[in-house]
Description:
Elements lengths: L2 H60 L7 H15 L8 E8 L2 E4 L14 E2 L6 H7 L4 E6 L5 E9 L4 E8 H103 L4 H26 L8 H15 L6 E8 L6 H21 L6 E10 L4 E8 L9 H4 L3 H13 L3 E5 L5 E7 L7
Parallel strand pairs: 7-8
Antiparallel strand pairs: 1-2, 1-6, 2-3, 4-5, 5-6, 8-9, 9-11, 10-11
Helix pairs in contact: 1-2, 1-4, 4-5, 5-6, 5-7, 6-7, 7-9
Amino acid sequence: xxxxxxxxxxxxxxxxxxxxxxxxxxxxxxxxxxxxxxxxxxxxxxxxxxxxxxxxxxxxxxxxxxxxxxxxxxxxxxxxxxxxxxxxxxxxxxxxxxxxxxxxxxxxxxxxxxxxxxxxxxxxxxxxxxxxxxxxxxxxxxxxxxxxxxxxxxxxxxxxxxxxxxxxxxxxxxxxxxxxxxxxxxxxxxxxxxxxxxxxxxxxxxxxxxxxxxxxxxxxxxxxxxxxxxxxxxxxxxxxxxxxxxxxxxxxxxxxxxxxxxxxxxxxxxxxxxxxxxxxxxxxxxxxxxxxxxxxxxxxxxxxxxxxxxxxxxxxxxxxxxxxxxxxxxxxxxxxxxxxxxxxxxxxxxxxxxxxxxxxxxxxxxxxxxxxxxxxxxxxxxxxxxxxxxxxxxxxxxxxxxxxxxxxxxxxxxxxxxxxxxxxxxxxxxxxxxxxxxxxxxxxxxxxxxxx
Length: 452
């Protein structure tokens, strides 16, 4: 909304308010003045009617000798008094009349025009309404037409002693005239005040309006800039999401290819093993196949996972244990395996290291822990010890550490690999307990992104 429209609306509001206030005030004052005028006219008509009746009663007793009779004596006195009366205000007067057949005969000269001998008014005409009521014996105040056809405020009263009617009246335009003049003056003052008010309003509000306009422009510019930034950010996010999706696809493909390549390596080693007859030469290659299978299984799980940054550790270790047991299915002891794996969000390197450690220790337990026994139990656990550290455990209830046995006690390649992975790869510590079997415990710190 521009300044011109605001100014027009302001002027219209002030005009409406001033008109309502002025009109209401003038109407109340007019009704009050009209009521007072009605009261004065009614009192004047009643007092004159009672006075004429008193004079008529007096003349009926003491003016019997009057040549034309007591009635004419009374009327002559009234006419003489009326000739000295200049009227009420600018248009007010008394009229006195009687009814003769269908005519109203006025007995006093009228104030308006050359009416020394007023013409009668027919009873059937719409004129002289107040006088008709007076001659009908009614008293009161009405607004109606007088003998001229002018709208008047009139009080009518019957004069019963002489069978006459008297009317005290004043033109309604005279009653309204002061209010019309006052209304015109008020309208003029109102116009001046509205012009002054509109000018002051414009002078006072112009700086504020200009400031608001400038602020609005600045806000619109800032909003547009913000929208542009949001649009650019959304486009960048879409591009980033598309890039991440492409990279996820690529990373999945890499995991898939790594897994396939490792399986191909395993197949090649298996072919080489099949041509070997020396069991001592075959055993290291079989262990290498198992180690490659550990790493291949990690890539397979990541390839199948929806989240490439983490994997289901419980599922991974269960699959790993199943594969190891299948690889050593010829071992006679019946081994029961219990796993307690917490869903820690470990990275790929940590998972591979833990998988290789479990492979070495679990394989070692299957091969050596239950010699001479028909069954045994192996517990595998991976838990968070606090917000900064985790613990990997592999323990069995087998024959334990036998210092005299080079087979079990000697630290072969597998246990050397476990120590290297624990200390170098996981930055942890390896401890071994020999009570009631063997228990290996690797405590290692969680990296910042793995603290959960």
